[in-house]
Amino acid sequence: VQLQASGGGLVQAGGSLRLSCAASGRTFSTYIMGWFRQAPGKEREFVGRIRMSGGDTYYADSVKGRFTISRDNAKNTMYLQMNILKPEDTAVYYCAARPSIGADEYPYWGQGTLVTVSS
Q1: What is the predicted pLDDT for the residue at 102?
Q2: What are residue 72's phi and psi, to 5 degrees?
Q3: Quick check: 111 and 4 in contact, CB under 8 A?
Q4: φ/ψ of residue 87, rounded to 5
């Protein structure tokens, strides 16, 4: 599966932004999808993930209650709605995919989209 993230940009603290992750192929609905981010000078960190049907999501504590992951399997697209953004949310955001069976690792990655939150 090939992934392409989009929707990044510059936003003021307290604002909102929605990222999209478009996937190629007809098997999108069989993948667990995740969002990750990497801030300047820091290691990549997990943001959240959504299972195949979309009814099961899990978030990092740092974004819980502010970010929402959803997916539209008919459109082969996953979304990350980010609300109440903080300067510390500034990072390159990546979407990733992994098969529902097997190791808990993400072998497929998009190219990343930059989110900058100004104070």
Answers
A1: 80
A2: -125, 100
A3: yes
A4: -55, -30
pLDDT digits (tens, 9 = 90+) for 15-24: 999 999 999 9
Does 26 have pLDDT greater than 80? no
Q: Is the dihedral of CA 98, 103, 51, 14 positive or negative?
A: negative
Helices vs strands, H then E, count in the chain? 0, 11
Structure tokens at 106: 């993400």
Contact 93, 5 (CB under 8 A): yes
Nearest to 19 by CA among 97, 83, 105, 62: 83
First to last CA, the chain: 37
Question: How crowded is residue 31: how many other Cβ atoms within 10 Å of its Cβ?
Answer: 24
pLDDT at 55: 82
Q: Are the C-beta atoms of 100 and 107 separated by less than 8 Å?
A: no
State the burial class of residue 102 (Cβ atoms within 10 Å of its Cβ: 0-12, 13-18, 19+): exposed
